Amino acid sequence: MKKLCCILAFFLSACGGTNNAADGAVVGTVAGAGVGAIVGDDRGHAGAGAAIGAGAGFITGAAAGAIADASKDHDDILLEQQEIIRRQEEEMKRQDREIQDIKRQQYHNEGLRRFERK
C-alpha cells in the first residue's frame, strides 16, 4: 500500500503546469488502476483489474479534462470579445464628440457668413 501511495503522489506531482486533459488522464489512470486492483484482488485478478481500471480511468480523466480545457478556452474568447466591444464603444463615443464639434463649427461658420452678407 505504501508503494501505491508513493506512486500516486509521484504521478500527481507530475501533473503541475500541464493542461487539464493531461492532468485528468494522469489522475484518472492512477485512480482507475488503484480501484481496479482493489476490485480485481477480490476476484483473484489484481493485475487485470488494475490494467482495466487504468484504461477506463485514463479515458474518463482525459475526457473530463478536455471538457474543462474547452470551457476555459471559451471563457478566454468571451473576455477577448468583450474587450473588443468596449474599445469599439469608446471609439463610437469619440466619433460622436467629433461629429458634435463639426456641427457646432458649421453652425458658427454659417452665422459668420450671414453676418458678412449684410
Overview of the molecule:
The structure is a single chain. With 118 residues, the protein is mainly α. It has one domain. It has three helices and no strands. The chain is rod-shaped and about 115 Å long.
Short description:
Helices cover 91% and strands 0% of the residues. By secondary structure, the protein is mainly α. The mean pLDDT is 79.
Keywords:
118 residues, mainly alpha, 3 helices, rod-shaped
Count the strands? 0
Rg calc: 33 Å
| H and E string | HHH
Mean pLDDT across all amino acids: 79
Structural class: mainly alpha
Number of domains: 1
> Which runs of at least 5 residues are low in confidence (pLDDT < 50)?
none
The portion of residues forming beta strands comes to: under 5%
